[in-house]
Type II toxin-antitoxin system HicB family antitoxin
Amino acid sequence: MSTDIGSNDATNPEERITLTKEDEWWVATDEHSGVTSQGKTRESALENLDEAVAGYDGEGRPPTREELDSIGIDPESNESGDSLPDVLE
């Protein structure tokens, strides 16, 4: 099942969200940016998409030290490599 939610604003016809039901998940895609998110309900998929698009548009915030610690990341010992791991090449 798929639902298109378009803008009624004729000045911005690119504003369009596609909602698709895939198994137990609703998948929401912002067609303009290509950002996709999901949720167990239509509402949660759309809320998650709003957050993902905000991050994509640069409206997000850096993670706090506590958030990084909770997932086991130490910024002082974290290094970016010059090349991708073999599995990503």
User: Anything to note?
Assistant: Helices lie at 42-56, 65-70. The chain has two helices and four strands. Confidence is low (pLDDT under 50) at residues 7-11.
